[in-house]
């Protein structure tokens, strides 16, 4: 899909929170799991975190029992033409007793934005502008992106300081990933400061030779743009999802829980460096 991003107008925003877009146009690689688990891990390390579901399929929202048919105010409201961000943030930021972070749910109408924003000037800047009204309240804002390249992904990348790319360590992992890198490259030509990206190997199974090969290939190709943390396969993630919780509420000593805690520390450390 072609994105017309040539009309992005550059505006500087003063912000405090580090905004991390969790993106990969490949489906089922661990984006939503990363957004929710990393969000909770950072919260447990005393960081104030907002997780935004920007995927029209609303998987993160449903995971936390925000069912699209019952939620009226969502991330979609941020994209209204005459949005009053201050009021909207107050209405869309939700809390759940099962997690420590704040959350903005998604809805299927987000998928209409491709068409609705067609003629909007600076359509790639909408989320970035909206976030400037709230970033002073958080240490981290994590954006769970949809699995395709389009106006939502562009908005998330433009708004972010870091694009975290979960890459499933299987042999199709790198297929098609170039499109995402090309999108980041094109945006970096027009953004005031380039967006960084860093890959997170996920669903790793050290017993499988193919997994080990792919991990080596990812490290060789991307070098320091790969996190040291590797997230292994852990069935506890599916258990957590099925019970509407994050892995820390199921088993905080499980491998997956500890690995996302390690990732959270790595992210905090990188910021201090
Ligand atoms: N490390 C892991 N080990 C085992 N299962 C995992 C792991 N990470 C995620 N899963 C499971 O894999 C499935 C897909 O994960 P997830 O929904 O996070 O991917 P996604 O990239 O957000 O998918 P989509 O592109 O459809 O939004 C889920 O059932 C999730 O519970
Ligand atoms: Mg998802």
TrEMBL record:
It comes from the Bacteria. CDD domains: ParAB_family. Signal peptide: none annotated. Residues 17-190 form the AAA domain. Pfam families: AAA_31. InterPro entries: AAA_dom, DNA_Partitioning_ATPase, P-loop_NTPase. This is Chromosome partitioning protein. It comes from Maridesulfovibrio ferrireducens.
């Amino acid at each position: 899909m072609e994105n017309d991003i040539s009309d992005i107008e550059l505006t500087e925003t003063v912000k405090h929170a580090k905004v991390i877009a969790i993106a990969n146009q490949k489906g089922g690689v661990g984006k939503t799991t990363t957004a929710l688990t990393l969000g909770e891990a950072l919260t447990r390390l005393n960081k104030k975190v907002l997780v935004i579901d920007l995927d029209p399929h609303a998987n993160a929202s449903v995971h936390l029992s925000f069912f699209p048919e019952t939620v009226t105010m969502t991330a979609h409201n941020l994209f209204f033409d005459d949005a009053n961000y201050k009021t909207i943030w107050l209405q869309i930021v939700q809390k759940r007793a099962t997690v420590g972070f704040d959350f903005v749910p998604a809805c299927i109408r987000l998928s209409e934005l491709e068409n609705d924003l067609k003629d909007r000037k600076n359509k790639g800047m909408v989320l970035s502008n909206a976030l400037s009204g709230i970033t002073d309240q958080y240490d981290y804002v994590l954006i769970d992106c949809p699995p395709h390249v389009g106006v939502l992904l562009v908005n998330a990348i433009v708004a972010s300081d870091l694009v975290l790319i979960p890459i499933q360590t299987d042999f199709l992992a790198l297929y098609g990933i170039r499109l995402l890198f090309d999108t980041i490259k094109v945006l970096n030509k027009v953004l005031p400061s380039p967006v960084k990206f860093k890959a997170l190997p996920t669903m790793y199974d050290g017993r499988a030779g193919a997994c080990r090969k792919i991990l080596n290939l990812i490290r060789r190709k991307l070098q320091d743009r790969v996190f040291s943390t590797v997230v292994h396969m852990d069935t506890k993630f599916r258990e957590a999802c099925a019970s509407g919780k994050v892995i820390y509420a199921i088993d905080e000593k499980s491998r997956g829980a500890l690995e996302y805690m390690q990732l959270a520390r790595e992210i905090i450390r990188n910021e201090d460096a």
